[in-house]
Specification:
single chain, alpha/beta, four-stranded parallel sheet, two-stranded antiparallel ribbon, 46% helix, 11% strand, globular
Length: 235
C-alpha cells in the first residue's frame, strides 16, 4: 500500500466506495437555450438532438424560434439568459439579406454579452451541405436547395428509388443529413473554414458557419464545457 494513503475502517471504506460509485453513475445535466431566427428550419433541427443524441450527459435543450431579424434574436437571447440558470445560451441566425452592419453588429453584441453565436453566411443550409462536401467557395442562399438535394442523391448510402428533394422546413432533416452524410465531416469542414478568417468582418466570411460549435456542445465534445460540468457535479 502506498505510504501516503490513509487506511480507513472497512465500513467507512465501503461507504466512500458506494458514494464514488453513485457519483460515477450520476448524469451531468447541462441546460442549453437556443434562440433561433427561423421558426421551423433551425428549431426542427435542434429539437432532434433531444431524441437522437443521448449520452452520459443529460442535455436539457430549450429551443425558441422567433421569426425575427438578427438583432432581435440576440436581444431575446440576452434577455432570456438573465431569467434562468442556463449553462449556455445561443443565438442562431443567418446572413441572408441583412445588411453587413446589422449582421456584424449582432455577432459582436452576442459576444460582448456572453451569448454563443451560431451564425451562418449565407444560410443555415451550409451546415447541411458540409455533411457531404467541403464547400470552400461562397454561394447564394438560393443555391442550397439544389446543392443539398444533389449531394444526398449522390451519397453512396442513399438507395431509395425516389429522388430526394431538400425541403427547408422538413422535420426529418437531422435524420437525412446524419444518415446519408457525416456530422463528423461537417464539424471538421466547418471548423477548418472558420479558421481561415481572422477579422471581424463576418459579413464577408462566405462560406462560413459557426453551427459546429453549438453541435459540439450538444454531442458532448466541447472540452471546455465538459470541464465546467464536471466541476458543477463535484460542488
Amino acid at each position: 500500500m502506498p505510504a501516503n494513503r490513509i487506511k480507513l475502517e472497512p465500513a467507512l471504506e465501503r461507504r466512500y466506495a458506494r458514494q464514488a460509485k453513485r457519483r460515477e453513475k450520476r448524469p451531468i445535466v447541462c441546460k442549453i437555450l437556443i434562440v433561433c431566427e427561423g421558426t421551423k428550419t433551425e428549431p426542427n433541427y435542434f429539437e432532434s438532438f433531444k431524441t437522437f443524441n443521448r449520452g452520459t450527459n443529460v442535455y436539457d435543450i430549450e429551443v425558441k424560434g422567433l421569426g425575427k431579424n438578427t438583432k432581435d434574436v440576440v436581444d431575446k437571447a440576452i434577455d432570456l439568459s438573465r431569467k434562468d440558470n442556463y449553462d449556455r445560451v445561443w443565438a442562431v441566425f443567418d446572413k441572408d439579406s441583412f445588411s453587413d452592419d446589422k449582421f456584424n453588429g449582432a455577432i459582436i453584441k452576442a459576444q460582448d454579452n456572453g451569448i454563443g453565436c451560431a451564425w451562418s453566411n449565407e444560410a443555415f443550409e451550409l451546415w447541411y451541405l458540409y455533411h457531404f462536401a467541403n464547400r470552400v467557395t461562397g454561394m447564394n442562399r438560393t443555391e442550397y436547395k439544389k446543392a443539398i438535394s444533389d449531394a444526398v442523391n449522390r451519397s453512396p448510402k442513399y438507395h431509395l428509388k425516389a429522388k430526394y428533394e431538400y425541403a427547408k422546413n422538413a422535420q426529418n432533416n437531422y435524420q437525412i443529413m446524419t444518415q446519408y452524410g457525416s456530422m463528423e465531416n461537417a464539424m471538421k469542414f466547418a471548423e477548418a473554414k472558420s479558421k481561415e478568417y481572422t477579422d471581424q468582418h463576418y459579413a464577408q466570411h462566405n462560406p462560413c458557419t459557426m453551427v459546429f460549435k453549438l453541435v459540439q456542445q450538444l454531442i458532448g465534445k466541447d472540452e471546455s464545457l465538459n470541464k465546467e460540468l464536471m466541476r458543477k457535479m463535484e460542488e
